Every structure is written in C-alpha cells, then in structure tokens.
Amino acid sequence: KKTLTVNNTEVEFSDERNLLEVIRKAGIDIPTFCYHSELSIYGACRLCLVDIKGRGIMASCSIKPEPGMVVQTDTKAIRNMRKINVELLLASHNRECPTCQRSANCTLQDLARKLGVKDVRYKQTQKNLPLDTSSPSLVRDPNKCVLCGDCVRVCSEVQSVGALDFASRGSNARVVPAFDNDLSEGECVNCGQCAQVCPTGAIVAKSDADKVWEAIYDPEKVVVVQVAPAVRVGLGERFGFKTGENVARKMVTAMKMMGFDHVYDTCFAADMTIFEEATEFIERLTTGGKLPMFTSCCPAWVKFAETFYPEMLPNVSTTRSPQAIFGAVARKTLPAKLGVKPENLVVVSVMPCTAKKFEAQLPKFKRDGRPEVDYVLTTVELASMIESMGIKLDELEPAAFDMPLGFSTGGGVIFGATGGVMEAALRFAVEKVSGEPLEEIDFKETRGLAPRKEATLEVAGKQLRIAVVHGLANARKLVEEIKAGKAQFDFIEVMACPGGCVAGGGQPITSEDGFRSKRAAGLYDTDKERQVQKPQDNYWVDKCYAEAFGGRPGSHEAHTRLHTVYNN
Ligand code: HC1
Ligand code: SF4
C-alpha cells in the first residue's frame, strides 16, 4: 500500500491521476478553476497550490503522487497567494453578482467568500467587452471569463467540436469562438456543456423566462407546457431532494400554481417518436434502406452531423424529436380539445437542454410563420421561476400530468438517459419484427456510462447489431470507424451530452460524484414502477394517430407532420 502525508495525516493512494485527487479523496476540498477530472490538465489557475517538503510550492493538479511525500495544503504563503490570485481575477471580472444567472452558484464568488476576501486591492481592469447574444441557446459574457479554459477543453475534448479557443496573450487574452466570430456563426452545436463546466457566469443559457411569464399573465392566452423526461430527475436538486429523485408530481403542482393552464409530458411524445422511428427502422431493415440508422432526437447531434458529416445524413432517422412531435400534436389537436383559438395557444417546453432552444426556433419547425413550440425553458430556469414565486417544492401535494398528452409508458421515460431511446425502440421493434409478444423488456446492454455500448440481438433468425454512444467525441469516433468500414451496425443511438439528457446543458450544475448515474437511476426506477412499459402499449398515442395522424405510424399525415429534413 502506498501512502503520503497531507497536513500531518497519513493518506493512502493508488491510481489517482495527480496529487490534487489524492488530497480531495482525503477530504480536503482544495479550490480550483481550471481543474476538471474529466478534462486534460491545464494548470493555469494556480489555486490548487500545495507546499511539498523539499520541493516547495507547486500546483497539485500537475504533480504525480509519490510515496512518502509530505504535503501541506494551507500555509501562510499559500493562503496569501490564493487570495492574491482571487483578487486579481475579481479585478478583471464584471462584479454585478446579484444580477448574474450564476449568483449563489459561482466558484469565484464561493472562493472569495471562503478565503475571506473583503476588498480588492488591485485596480479594476475589466474591459466592458460586448456580450455575445447571437446564439439562440447561450449567452457569452467575456467580462466574466476567468480564462480557466474549461469550456475550450470540454468543447474540443469531450465534444470534438472545437468551437471555442483562446485568442491573444497576456492581459489581452480572451476565450472566443473560432475566428473571433459570434457563437452562432461557427460550429457550435448548442449542447451547453461549456456552460456546465464554466465556473462563473461567462457562458449561460439564454433565458426565455420573461416571455413565458408574459404569456402566463396574458388573459387571452392558454399556456400549455411539456416537460422532458430528464427534467423530473434534475429539478429536485435545487430544492434539497436527493440527487436523481423523480419530483414530477410535485413539479406539476408547482407549475399549476405558476399559472400554466395544462401540464403535459414530453414522454407521451417520446412514445410517439418510437412509433415513428422504430417503424422507420423496420422499413429500412426490411426493404434494403440506408443502414445504420442513427437516432435523431438530440438536436446537438443532428447539427454535429449536418456540420461535420453531411454525407451521413441519409442515415439519420427523419423522425422528429419528441419535443418537435409534441409541438405538432399540440398545434393539431389542442385548439379543438381545449376550445381555444389557435393563435391564443402558447406552447412551452421545459428541457434539460440548451440545444432544444435552437431546435425550437428552426424555420423547418415553424407553421404559418410561428414556431410550433413557442418557448423553451431549461430545468434551471424552471427552478428559478418556482423559487421566484416562493414555492417550496418539497412541501407541495403531488398531482398528475394532464390527459391525454400527459400519459406515457416507461419506455418514454427512459429517453432521458443514454441508451434509453435505443431500449425503448427495441421494445417496439423486436416485438414487431418477431411477431411475438416481448416478455423480457429490459435491454440492459444499452444502460450505463461506458462511452460506447454494443450488442448483437437475435430477432426472428436475424442478427440486429446496435450501438449507443454519448459525448460527441465518442460519436465522431464511431462515425469514422463506420466510414472506414471498421464498424458495422444496424441501429445507433447518439446523444451529445455524456450521460444523455440527464446531464444536459440546462440541468442544475453539480460536482457530485456519480450524479449522471443517480439521475439515470431515477428514470429507470420510474420505468420499473410503470404498469405500461412498452411504447406500443400507449393507448393514448394510438388514439392520437386515429384522430389526427392517418391512423398509423408511417402514414402520409404522419410523414408530413412528424418527420423532418436535414440541411445537406
Ligand atoms: Fe431529451 Fe428527448 S430525451 S432529447 O434527451 O428525445 O432535452 O430529457 O426531451 O425531444 O423525450 C432532452 C430529455 C428530451 C426530446 C425526449
Ligand atoms: Fe462547444 Fe457545446 Fe459550448 Fe457550443 S455549446 S461552444 S459546441 S461546448
């Protein structure tokens, strides 16, 4: 067993990547800006300083732990240096904290408080650079950037997009989109993973909350809302619930108190997506269509494919995402059902995702010049709206989603975790292809956080090869292998965010260990509790087809309203 000494206490270690991880494992939360366990080491923020006996003061993120090391994490000199570093950052930082989206959830604010910074001894060097509001999903405020480079690394290492980089050096250094363009002009796919790792408010989701309040307060309008699968296992974290606890039923009560007229479930539309997408897959499989078929519900993945792999677009399912299918169903069926004039129906989404804001405003999802989904809120925006009303979520009585667009199967619920769309699609497709009732509905091969999950299933004497990837760098690797003839699959699920939507760019920011698995577990537990788990058993989806979409998946009406086209 290997040991070293931290603050006079012996600490065991094994395969930790660096001294910082050993120290954190020993229960000492050394501050950092630029260290992120899932990213490469940058070593620029100089906050994780430690004093190593015989070697002096160094950044612990860049030091390999060695047996016998004697380390102090807090000396007078270190404390001073940390304080100076934080004060220098504050001097160059826009300090309008009360109006910042990240107020109370900001590493810089937190550090200033912990280190007891009472005033900033340096001249204010903040430059008042313009905000970049060009993106439909995100707002960049360079005045709040601390140059930690976390966003640059997540975008290139985890997403392999490379939309952000450093420009200039020294006191003029900045993080900018490629060619110093606006964010919306480049290759950014709107996934929001940069906003998730940003320690301050330099990149945040663009908020639609004010527009939604305005609609709610307008007596002419009937405001309906759909809530995505992953929101229900993320929202509770902002109200003291256990990570991953499904708070859907209390959330419905809160949303009724806020003034939403009808609260529906995106999981209904996810079931309907499976009707279309699995039907499309079976059609491709049996008629020699383009395979592998990729799922299409993640708008960041779709933009990634459009940007980097246009030649693969014929392989992407043409089925719209659940958000967009809900939009179509709402516009087509709700005015008559609710007795509201079409122009007075306002359709809102709550999504764990920033790319869904981008998706909703795409011209192809407009009808008569208006988006089918008017506004998209993130989980965090919904949490803030609930807080702003003084509602205590934990104290509310539970309520059910409104019918009929609030009914869903377990298959629709697990969409929010990586592998969930594939599992739901298999529940449908395997039963249809084999022509026999499916007894074993769990496809555990699709679950978990492995970067790529693969399986070969025997169905009606045929082999079905499936793969699931999450994180766009993993998607890129798989697509490259397919193009080179090194990988063969029939059906592939891609989600842009590592872990799937449960860890989307609009979810509460956390550094808790295992938060992705815990949120996913919340969805799988809900699936298990449902009486109906196969999407094809959703009676209300059947009824919706009968009433408005040509009676069956793949009908002409379904193709016109529930499918889409790509830019190639
Ligand atoms: Fe997702 Fe989806 S699962 S994309 O991850 O297919 O955002 O939660 O709403 O549309 O249903 C997100 C989640 C979400 C869609 C569904
Ligand atoms: Fe990169 Fe995603 Fe951020 Fe765009 S939203 S800059 S693609 S990490």
From TrEMBL:
Biological processes, Gene Ontology terms: ATP synthesis coupled electron transport
4Fe-4S His(Cys)3-ligated-type domain ranges (all copies): 77-116
Listed GO MF terms: 2 iron, 2 sulfur cluster binding; 4 iron, 4 sulfur cluster binding; ferredoxin hydrogenase activity; iron ion binding; NADH dehydrogenase (ubiquinone) activity
Subcellular location: Membrane
Single GO cellular component term: membrane
Keyword line: 2Fe-2S, 4Fe-4S, Iron, Iron-sulfur, Membrane, Metal-binding, NAD, Repeat, Translocase
Cofactor(s), by name: [2Fe-2S] cluster; [4Fe-4S] cluster
Protein biosynthesis in keyword set: no
Start and end residues of each 2Fe-2S ferredoxin-type domain: 1-77
Domain 4Fe-4S ferredoxin-type: 136-166, 179-208
Family: Belongs to the complex I 75 kDa subunit family.
Record-given protein name: 4Fe-4S dicluster domain-containing protein
Lineage: Bacteria, Pseudomonadati, Lentisphaerota, Lentisphaeria, Victivallales
